[in-house]
Hints:
- The longest helix is centred in the C-terminal third of the chain and has 17 residues, at 204-220.
- 43% of the residues are buried.
- The protein is 36% helix and 19% strand.
- By secondary structure, the protein is α/β, with parallel strands linked by helices.
- The chain has an 8-stranded parallel sheet with strand order 1-8-7-6-5-4-3-2.
- It contains 8 helices and 8 strands.
- The chain is globular.
- The chain has a domain at 13-22 and 30-173: Alpha-Beta Barrel (TIM Barrel), CATH 3.20.20.
- The chain has helices at residues 17-26, 49-58, 76-82, 97-106, 152-166, 183-189, 198-201, 204-220; strands at 4-7, 31-37, 62-68, 86-90, 110-115, 133-137, 171-175, 193-196.
Amino acid sequence: MDNILAPSxxxxxxxxxxxxxxxxxxxxxxxxxxxVMDGTFVPSLSYGVCVVESIRKSCDMVLDVHLMIxxxxxxxxxxxxxGADIITVHLEACADxxxxxxxxxxxxxxxxxxxxxxxxxxxxxxxxGQIDLLLVMSVEPGFGGQKFFPxxxxxxxxxxxxxxxEGRDIDLEVDGGITQENVREVLRAGANVIVxxxxxxxxxxxxxxxxxxxxxxxxxx
Length: 221
């Protein structure tokens, strides 16, 4: 599977968002990670449907929408119609994860399932036959700029092993505290989709190109 960079606009400068999205796209990033937070499932508030819709009108990147909200099934249709390509929900936030995943597929999007650092990786086993992407959070969700939890490496390895046993092409995405200094270890543990916020948007073009170089090198090794 290809290694993919998914810059997170949570760390972007809102006043220059359009320009910065263009910069990371021109540098080779294929995905754009959009964190949606409701102030309940996580303490913070962030972007909503209108932001996804606006970005979709002028951007052909894969829109990787991460719903950190309670009962995300309520908003699947809205985000799908706004232009999301991938919709990821949290196992911990779903009243019925299987039905929520099915709903994402019914609206024509790829379905992702995310788990917080405190949730055992093994709990996603029953859903691996239904999802397209597994997102392992390597920090507590809700805030940008946090440091990577070192224990996440073993969780990534476990997740990759479980995906291998399932025998399906499921992307393994990791989000939280990823930098140019630790991304190789994350990739070697089994991740192939890398979410990076602060480490990219401090200097979007050059930082994205450096990440892309590392991702290519690791894919070729």
